[in-house]
Write a structure and sequence with these properties.
Shape: globular
Number of domains: 1
Helix content: 40-55%
Distance between the termini: 52 Å
CATH topology: Rossmann fold
Structural class: alpha/beta
Largest sheet: 7 strands, mixed
Number of strands: 7
Number of helices: 10
CATH architecture: 3-Layer(aba) Sandwich
Order of helices and strands: HHEHEHEEHEHHHHHEE
Radius of gyration: 18 Å
């Protein structure tokens, strides 16, 4: 199955902000409710240790991604205290404020629009992207990685979507979850109830974007081909698929960080 570079509706600039925020809120809630990215917590922990940082800059955060769940896992395993900064081209500020309060302020955010291919220099820390790298065509995906390298920052890419029939089929079940979970999504919005139950735009967008996400997701070999064209001689790259439990969808990952300098005695 070849990769298809198609559009996802929730990333289009013409989509009303209120509807985009409702969609990213639903995505964020689902990722945390089902601990979708819990299996990669040890990988991320090791990458942060190798990068010698306790600061994380999350890009294309949407409604906050999996960080309410992941931040607790990192905090419980760490000797220090990790600080996460959420960023996005279209920041969902109310969701970020809620995440900050719910995480005892371990999760912060940048209120300005942030381009993942050109991250402001003042945002320093290990960069992460969850279920969003597939949005970018190969030349932009390469620019995201090169920007991290040029800034001498580590980066971790994690994708739970896959170009596989079973994963695409799961998107139809995923699109049904708003009908069950919407009353518990915070911050509460009356408009979310309207766009879910009266006019089910949110479930329909989740289905459409979920299928497209699978068709756009890079496979490990394709990620290696992107890395091969980087100017990153000092970087170590790890690429693969990871799952710690039977029945869980494997998570595709790409992790890069600067190699520790070789001591010369």
């Amino acid at each position: 199955m070849s990769r298809i570079q198609f559009i996802e509706l929730h990333e289009q600039p013409w989509l009303p902000t209120s509807l985009r925020d409702a969609i990213t809120d639903a995505l964020q809630f689902g990722l945390n409710r089902f601990s979708a990215y819990a299996p990669i917590a040890p990988l991320l922990q090791d990458a942060l240790r190798e990068s010698r940082t306790e600061s994380i800059v999350d890009m294309c955060s949407g409604g906050g991604g999996p960080w309410l769940d992941l931040s607790q896992r990192l905090q419980s395993d760490a000797q220090g205290s990790f600080q996460i900064v959420l960023t996005d081209k279209y920041p969902n500020l109310s969701a970020y404020q809620y995440a900050g309060a719910a995480s005892a302020n371990h999760i912060g955010y940048c209120p300005d629009s942030v381009d993942a291919t050109n991250v402001p220099q003042e945002l320093k820390g290990f960069r992460t992207m969850f279920t969003s790298f597939h949005h970018f065509p190969p030349e932009d995906a390469r620019a995201i990685l090169q920007d991290a390298v040029d800034a001498k920052q580590g980066i971790g890419i994690f994708e739970i979507t896959r170009r596989a029939p079973a994963t695409i089929g799961m998107m139809f079940l995923w699109a049904l979850t708003p009908f069950v979970l919407t009353p518990w999504i915070r911050p509460f919005r009356w408009s979310r109830l309207f766009w879910t139950y009266l006019l089910p735009i949110i479930p329909m967008v989740l289905l459409f974007d979920g299928v497209v996400s699978c068709l756009r997701t890079y496979r490990p070999q394709e990620l290696r081909e992107i890395i091969a064209k980087l100017n990153a001689t000092e970087y170590q790259w790890n690429v693969g698929e990871h799952s710690r439990a039977a029945g869980r969808v494997p998570i595709t990952y790409l992790i890069g960080f600067r190699r520790a300098p070789v001591s010369r005695g």
